[in-house]
Amino acid sequence: MSERHPAHASAALAGTADPIKRPILSVRHLTTEFIPPRGMQGKSARALEDVSFDVMPGQTVGLVGESGCGKTTTLMSVMRLLPSTGRIINGQVNFKGRDLLAIDERQMRKVRWREMAIVFQGAMNALNPVMKIGDQIREGILLHDMLDREAAEERVGELLEMVGIPRARRDQYPHQYSGGMRQRAMIAMALACSPDVLFADEPTTALDVMIQAQVLELLRDIQKALGLAIVLVTHDLGVVAEVCDSVVVMYGGKVAEYGNADQIYNHPQHPYTQRLLASFPDVNTPTAQLTSIPGTPPRLTDLPAGCRFHPRCDARVAKCSEVSPPLITISEGHFAACYLCHGQEAHF
Fold this sequence. Notes:
By secondary structure, the chain is α/β, with parallel strands linked by helices. The chain has 2 domains: about 25-105 and about 195-270 and about 280-290, P-loop containing nucleotide triphosphate hydrolases (Rossmann fold), CATH 3.40.50.300; about 115-195, no CATH class. The protein has 10 helices and 13 strands. The strands form 2 sheets. It has a 9-stranded mixed beta sheet, sandwiched between helices. Strands 2-1-4-5 form a 4-stranded antiparallel beta sheet, with helices on one face.
């Protein structure tokens, strides 16, 4: 990857955040599990454990890792949109000075869409196939009493134009839109109530390369115009290198490494981050041989003792299979959970 110098470095989680520019969102020790559906036997699945990170105003934070590592569950936990089998058993989600895990559902409904919104993965499945696009966007505006019906109609047109869709197509249905247009419509819907934080769950999945680039450019333009903070879930390290300021590398439901994009890409510390980067092509070294990570991610119902990556790690030591390593402060704003890293334990 080419060297990057992000505009915003992640605030150090150990309490050294800029006293003037504080995080708009701070996730601390978030732990989530899924229990078997009623009437079914089986083990609980620990989907997240002790997840912590910060989101600064106007910053883009990328959540990366293999499928099943907890990226989407992190978003659903923060938004409190877990299914009935999911439950948050520990942690705090501090958003603009209040803990979202301590408020009731009625209060939380006022936060969703008005203050934080989400672009779900798979736009075709997320959109109602029997409702016109304009009606779906307007519904959220009216539901939150943002505007009257006439003003809401005008707002729908403005939002569609903002994401590059002509107003005249507001009365069309999702199946009449291309994949890229459906994704743009989802972004317009998420922006309907002018949130401060936008969560984007794999926003470029199933889109061709040109459309992916257009969607990412759209997100950048909207962020610059509106001052949004964005949390982006993706498995595409190229997307992360292009648009993210900070990166949270997740593995087995835990944070393996966390830092600004320059630190993660040019000075990775955790063996998992190093192997993940080595498995991704770099346009600057096109002849470099790609390597794969041996083995498979752990089952969440049968997690290994110690470091969750140790069964696949060729740098493991005896302690790795016994005790889970804490996050170590590598440098200011850069953390890794590995016994091979040198530094002091991070205190949140």
